[in-house]
Design a protein that fits this description.
Blueprint: E1 2-4, E2 8-9, H1 24-40, H2 45-50, E3 53-54, E4 57-64, E5 73-79, E6 87-96, E7 101-110, E8 112-113, H3 124-127
Antiparallel strand pairs: 1-5, 2-5, 3-8, 4-7, 5-6, 6-7
Length: about 130
């Protein structure tokens, strides 16, 4: 399943002295896209947490292709290719207003029981919302 975020402007405070988006902000961008993707499926992260499940990032990889700069308009494509078991693998492409690839990324999120902090299988109510 693929989802593309609404375009958003790079804000001044997200950049370094050179006017380039600081690499740490890409982690925020990926999280925003991931949460929007869940919402698009009808899943609210706060509701997932209320049910005792937390979703930590356990692996992340970002490959930067070219810089994003202050004033650029970016959009993020989010891909999930397989139904989750105990983890969900997300893939991302961040693209600017000229349709140029800024970076590609992958994150692995696992399902944890909030109380025991043990890995659990993807809950049925979440699994039922997946369309792959």
């Amino acid at each position: 399943m693929q989802y593309t975020t609404k375009p958003f402007l790079v804000r001044y405070y997200e950049t370094d002295k050179m006017g380039i988006v600081h690499h740490s902000n890409f982690l925020r961008y990926l999280e925003i896209a991931r949460l929007e993707w869940l919402n698009k499926l009808g899943l609210d992260y706060s509701e997932i947490e209320k049910n005792g499940i937390i979703l930590p990032v356990v692996d992340i990889n970002i490959s930067y292709k070219q810089p994003a700069r202050y004033g650029d308009t970016l959009k993020i494509q989010v891909f999930v290719k397989n139904k989750p078991k105990v983890t969900i693998d997300f893939e991302y492409k961040i693209i600017n207003q000229l349709n140029k690839l800024i970076c590609v990324a992958k994150t692995k999120i696992c399902f944890l029981n909030e109380k025991t902090r043990k890995v659990v299988r993807c809950p049925e109510n979440i699994l039922n919302n997946f369309i792959i």
